[in-house]
Design a protein that fits this description.
Blueprint: H1 11-24, H2 29-32, H3 36-42, E1 50-54, H4 61-77, E2 81-85, H5 92-99, E3 107-111, H6 114-121, H7 129-132, E4 133-142, E5 144-148, H8 157-166, E6 172-175, H9 181-193, E7 198-201, H10 205-213, E8 219-223, H11 224-232, E9 237-241, E10 268-275, H12 280-294, H13 297-306, E11 309-310, H14 315-336
Parallel strand pairs: 1-2, 1-3, 6-7, 6-8
Antiparallel strand pairs: 3-10, 4-10, 4-11, 5-8, 5-9
Helix pairs in contact: 1-12, 1-14, 3-12, 4-12, 6-14, 9-14
Length: 341
């Protein structure tokens, strides 16, 4: 799939983009004070291994995605890259570790939608995701898909909405747990469609899928790569995908927008961030190297195999995405009274 934001940009555009990013992320204001000496400092970067911390266990989607690009990214930057898995607290442990790290470009975060949702799901976070990080660039994005059990005999989103309105509180949906991206995707759907559907939280996506296949829940949102085999086998019915464009692997399945839920998008994305105060020249250098890796045919092939979309952008565009996601999910979480469990 083509990039959502376009290809690698020029050095001059990256400089202008970073200025906008710092405006969006006030914590990076110190970094924007970088002058000629900071630019010169990036010429020697990196001079030692780089650590990328992510808040998810090994073998998960974000981990596999990150490890698929780190060998080539290490080659581009000329230093080894260490992947440091620190799962727990919805990614907060990893985010806190990076927020406290030296802003020198040697400790980075593999960020996720938790950057936009956790401030409203958890009390008393020790960091502010908007102020604590300097966005570098997106790595990838994966669509969710709205799936229902075939025995429900519902074939379109319009039929689902009509049934839910006629039978409020009768339908239920499974999720990977309260406050997770799959749960919030369903809550956004409930809000936008103005329907009452009961939440059934599980400890992860696989058990929710098991009960959906067993007709014990009616519907759920799941990441497309996990749901695709069951959809192709006819064991589940796909009603819509959740990005702005259709999925190449399900070309006949409409987007939520096409299905009548105007403005609806809910994707699972990942990107690299540095601690606030990291010199802009260092941020730019990592961004350029990352986008070069993402633009390669080998990377696109690996991403296609994983069901991931390649996303190349600038620091400013990534900052804007986080800002937009934060505003969207704040409303959904606060109106729904949702708290992490």
């Amino acid at each position: 799939m083509s990039s959502l934001f376009g290809g690698v940009v020029s050095k001059s555009l990256l400089g202008a983009a970073l200025t906008a990013a710092v405006t969006l992320f006030p914590g990076a204001a110190g970094a924007q004070a970088a002058n000629a000496s900071a630019e010169q400092g990036a010429s020697g970067y990196p001079s030692k291994p780089i650590r990328i911390i992510l808040g998810f266990p090994g073998g998960g989607g974000a981990d596999v995605l990150l490890r698929s690009v780190t060998p080539a990214l290490a080659d581009e930057l000329g230093q080894p890259i260490i992947v440091d898995n620190r799962p727990g607290a919805g990614g907060n442990l990893a985010m806190d570790a990076v927020a406290r790290a030296e802003p020198d470009g040697y400790t980075l975060l593999m960020g996720s939608p938790g950057l936009a949702t956790n401030p409203f799901l958890y009390k008393d976070l020790p960091f502010d995701p908007i102020k604590a990080f300097a966005p570098i660039g997106m790595v990838g994005s994966v669509q969710n898909v709205l799936i229902v059990r075939p025995s429900l005999h519902i074939d379109t989103v319009a039929e689902l909405v009509r049934y839910a309105k006629d039978h409020p509180g009768v339908l239920n949906f499974g999720s990977s747990g309260t406050g997770t991206s799959l749960h919030l995707a369903a809550e956004l759907f409930k809000r936008d469609a103005d329907v009452n559907i009961v939440h059934v939280p599980y400890r992860g996506g696989p058990p929710a899928m098991t009960d959906l296949l067993g007709d014990r829940v009616d519907m759920m949102f799941n990441v497309l790569p996990q749901a695709l085999p069951q959809i192709k086998a006819g064991k589940l019915k796909a009603l819509a995908v959740t990005a702005a464009e259709r999925a190449p692997t399900l070309p006949d399945v409409p987007t939520m927008e096409e299905a009548g839920i105007k403005g609806y998008t809910a994707t699972t994305w990942n990107g690299l961030l540095a601690p606030a105060g990291t010199p802009p020249a260092v941020v730019n250098k990592i961004n350029a190297a990352l986008n070069k890796v993402l633009s390669s045919p080998d990377t696109k092939k690996r991403f296609d195999d994983m069901g991931q979309d390649v996303v190349m952008d600038t620091p400013a565009e990534f900052a804007q995405l986080i800002k937009d996601e934060t505003a969207k999910w704040k409303i959904v979480i606060q109106e729904g009274g949702i708290k992490a469990q």
